[in-house]
Request: fold
Amino acid sequence: MTEAVYDYTRQDATGATCTAHAWAKVPPPLTRPQREELKAKAAALLKAKNAVLVSHYYVEDDLQDLALETGGCVADSLEMARFGRDHASQTLVVAGVRFMGESAKILSPGKRVLMPDLDATCSLDLGCPPDDFARFCDAHPDRQVVVYANTSAAVKARADWMVTSSCALAIVQHLKDSGQKVLWAPDKHLGRYIQQQTGADMLLWNGACIVHDEFRATELELLKADHPGAMVLVHPESPEAVVKLADVVGSTSQMLKAVVDGAAKEYIVATDNQIMHRMRQLAPGKTLIEAPTAGNSATCKSCAHCPWMAMNGLQGVIDCLERGAGEIHVDPTIGRQAVRCIDRMLDFVAKNPSALAPRVQGMVKGIGAA
Ligand code: SF4
Reply:
């Protein structure tokens, strides 16, 4: 594993990369009438500008609902990329974090891609600076470079494959079966999980998600003891000890499917707590419990909600549509290099739909393939 470690409390020249800066820019809570008014205004603007809203599961309830009510989508990063590319609208509004907007622009360079707040970034993206990453790749030219979606366009431009948490396991398995060695970046927990599951020869970058890194096994064991019938769903960006306690390990979409299809009444969910909104809509009879990030062994930098995702709000959608604020630009040369690794992933998934099946540990019944 590389020794690179990023300090997320650090200020850069603009201050924009620091979590305190992100929390300070989170839109203030609104009253119900204020929310309804802003939502109606944003919906009218989307229609007037022939734009479509693509929201991630981790953004606030109103942005998820607005996307669905106006013909957009609420999805994980894989589906967001596909949806934006295939939609007829020439303007995409991406409610999520910057690498998602960049991926949309890379896949659709002729479209206008707007974001509610361009400062919304990701600790994995920040923790993998392109120049450092290029040196890492240069030192290991015999390896296939596989990068997670949560990286900058410049890092993707250097990669052979992009993966999301939905398909990473299947793609690395495919590379291993083809006799390839892998250089993996940036999430160390996801990389280690894939290494263990596939037995592939992988060199790992030392990055982490500040949300998933916070889940704690000791407290999760106590919670499980209080809810012995609960199914435990864990995102593989979480620490190894937490993943070991899971019944299902998977991406956000795979976790959502596990709740909808699962036979259990209770679910302990270890990912950003905003996913609960969509889970409640799709599985209204189920009880959802947040996995613990607090307790004796925790520091709770995020408390299970991403500060950068939280920066997205209705007013930001209105501002970007009214004033063109928050437009994503990607250097065309970098974009042309980066699109190859994304297209390779999308082709692989199209040819191997079983690649998106959730990973069920032990003998859990009632969860089908995706
Ligand atoms: S939840 Fe984690 S991986 Fe997702 S955007 Fe936030 S910091 Fe990045």
About this structure: The chain has a mean pLDDT of 90. The CA atoms of residues 131 and 190 lie 22 Å apart. Residues 212-305 form a domain with the Rossmann fold fold (CATH 3.40.50.10800). The pocket of iron/sulfur cluster is lined by residues 58, 97, 122-124, 150, 209-211, 272, 306, 308-309 (CB under 6 Å).
